[in-house]
Write a structure and sequence with these properties.
By secondary structure, the protein is α/β, with parallel strands linked by helices. Helix content is 43%, strand content 13%.
Length: 288
Amino acid sequence: MAEYSLDGRVVIVTGAGRGLGRAMTEALTEAGANVIAAAHISDDFPDLEASCDGYPGRVHCLPADIRQAEDCDRIVAAAHDTFGGLHGLVNNAGLTFTYIWPDGYRRPEWIENKRFPRFYEVNDEKIQNVIDTNFVGADRLARRVAPLMVEQGWGRIVNVTTMYPTMTRPGSSPYGPSKAALECATEIWHKDLEGTGVTVNILNPGAGAATPGMAEEMKQMSREAKTPILIEPVLYKAPIVWLMSDATDGISGMRYDAKPWDASKPAAQEGERIGAKAGVLLYAMPDC
C-alpha cells in the first residue's frame, strides 16, 4: 500500500509506456490517482495496462507526440474529458543517447576507445527532435496545465532531468543541453508559481541510466567500468507518490534523486535527506 493516498487526483504522465514512466504510472494508480498515460510508442500500452490491471479504470492510455502542439492540447483535454480534472503533470518523456547515436553502444570499439559521436556529428533532425521532446514539449504541457492549477489553488509539476555529469559527458549533445534547459526552467517555473499552491520539482535517476533501450549496452559499460550504471525504475515509485501528495504542500524548486531513496523509510524523511535546490549547478558558477 502506498504511504500517501492520491484518491481523486488526476495526473498526466508522459513517456508512460515503459521504464520510468511505467513505474511512476503504476505507483500513482496504486496510490489511488487517475492517470493519463501519454506515450509516442503505443505498442507499449498493452503491457502498461496489464501492469495496472489491479486498478481498473484508473489509467487512460493516449497515443501522443509532445513535439506537436495539438497533441499537447489533446493530452490536457483528455484529463478533463476522462477524469473530470487535472492535478499533476510528470514531464518524463525524453529522447536520449539511444536516439542520438542508436548503434553507438553496440560498437565495442566505441566503448573501448571511449570514442562517442561528437556534437558536430549529430544531424539537424536529431538535434531538433531531442530539444522538442525533452524541453519544448515539457514546456508546452507545463504552460497548458499551470493556469488550470493556479485557478484551483493546487497542483504538482514534476520534471525528470538527469545528473550534471551526465548532462556534460562526451557524446551527450543535445541530450545534456536539453535536460539542462529543463533544469533551469524548473527554477524559473517555481519562482513564477510561488504562492499559488502549485509546486514544481525535479525527480531524476541520481547517477545511472534507466532507459529500457540502453539496458544491455549500459550493463556492458557497467561491467567494464566495474561500477553500477543502471538504476531500477521501481526506485521512482515512492518519491513520485510523495511529490504528488498533500504532504509536499509548500515544497517547490527542489530536485530529488531516486537512486539513494530508501522506500522502507518515511518519504518525508527521505525527501529531507536527499533534496537539493533545483538548478544548484548554476549557483556554483561565479558571477559574470
